[in-house]
Amino acid sequence: MEVTCGQCKARFNIPDDKVPKDRTFKLNCPKCKGKISLGGEAPEQPAKADEAGEAPLKMMDPATDRKAPEESYGYEDFTSDQALDFFEEGIKLALIMPNSSMNEAHLRAGLELIGYKCIPTPNTRDAIGKLRFHNFDLIILADGFDSQPLDHSVIVNYLNRLSMSVRRRIFLALISENFKTMDNMMAFAMSANVVINSKDIPKLHLILRKAVSENERFYKVFADTMVETGKA
After folding, report:
1. Which domains, ranges and CATH numbers included, belong to the chain?
2. Which of 20, 72, 84, 144 could join 27 via S-S bond, C-beta 3.0 to 4.6 A?
3. Quick check: 96 and 134 in contact, CB under 8 A?
4. What does the pLDDT read at residue 48?
């Protein structure tokens, strides 16, 4: 979709899949920072059956036979009172989700040392909204964020449901006082890239620099092959 700013008349493109069809949302013009409203109300259409006569399935929570929690969070959960920011290409974004006992400033300091721009989020709904609009290079999730333990985290469940091509581009770091830092077996069990003990937050930049570097080396051949075959 091509968008024109009403103030400075600048034009830029937004992927159609980032624009909700049934509601209005706001964003900032990347040039003049003026606010732009997009979208509109549209009646919900019933699901259409495919050629085999089967309607597409919606994500359901098998434990309760209801839609999974993360799927009930919509775009308006963070855009209704906050404009969508745009970031220049090449900026490494980190979504940070500490728990109430953590010092967010310590997380920010460690991440900024290794070149990440930190994006805070106050709760799960806001986090899901940001994840749908931005491509984050790094996600920091602490045990107890928004009063949710990691083994029941809506954020982790949302990430686990992403396609592999999308999920592979996200480096997920989980923090808990119950983890042994850089325990690879625990990270594998938690579907994370690295696990970190809460006491090691002062060394966060060193831990992440090593873990991210190892992850990039691990996937290098695969990533190069995908580029060569035109699938990246």
Report:
1. 1-43+60-89 (no CATH), 90-220 (3.40.50.2300)
2. 84
3. no
4. 52
